[in-house]
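Notebook p. 47: complex prediction with magnesium ion.
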Amino acid sequence: MLFSSRIEVKDADQVRSMRVAGLVVGRTLERLRAAVRPGVSTADLDALAEQSIREQGGVPSFLGYGEPPFPASICASVNDEVVHGIPGARVLAEGDVISIDCGAIVPDASGQGWHGDAAITVAVGDVPDDVAALMQVTEDALWRGLAAARVGGRVGDISHAVETFVRGAGAYGIVDGYTGHGIGTSMHMEPDVPNAGRAGRGPRLHRGMALAVEPMITLGSEDTVLADDEWTVLTADRTWAAHFEHTFALTEAGVWVLTAEDGGRERLAALGVPCGAED
Ligand code: MG
Ligand code: MG
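Predicted complex, structure tokens below:
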């Protein structure tokens, strides 16, 4: 069902199918988090991710995506790399941070594929206090954004919540030019979900909409540059960045965080809003 020509609205069964895909992604990221340590290469993490996605019945959605075709199952972005880093021979060292972005497609009984998309940033051993704070602010901003979504609200409510939290937390850069997005039968759909904006503006939020919220925050500039590999996005000033993402669906009861094991219950309750999880 489409409310506009471009925003896909899911029925309850379709949201449950997206929950299956979301859990494949969320559980894969937890395996990757546990595997991050000094001496592990980003290619090692990519291999683990592909194995995890496939053994849970999914297909890595990043593999072959875009132009030039993305060559891996995760994006692995280290330190001053913001997003879209290509896994390879790079070996993680004590004090690094790695942002891991993961997506999977899981078919429902009819064969229709449904997408999940989520990201975490993980410290490799001990990191400086400012980097630890950056990670915390980015993850908390994600949850503020998720908590701001409600049936009858607007996409701008999410953007405003993310921006307000980050601006109130310190002198951070909110990465310009990259946003969250609608998600469902494709990974990237309408509408965009910006990480800054005005409450009460933008497309209206309906029951059955599914969105990925993904703040990308830096210790410096909001500006980025694209590496020669045509994928890796780096901060223009080479300060370090963090990236957290969840996919959620709006149910009548509230926000169901499809890529979180508990559906978002704990974090949403801490922010005083109802959770729409149905499992
Ligand atoms: Mg992602
Ligand atoms: Mg995304």
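Notes: The pocket of magnesium ion (ligand 1) is lined by residues 101, 103, 117, 119, 214, 245 (CB under 6 Å). The radius of gyration is 17 Å.
Next step: compare against the earlier run before touching the bench.
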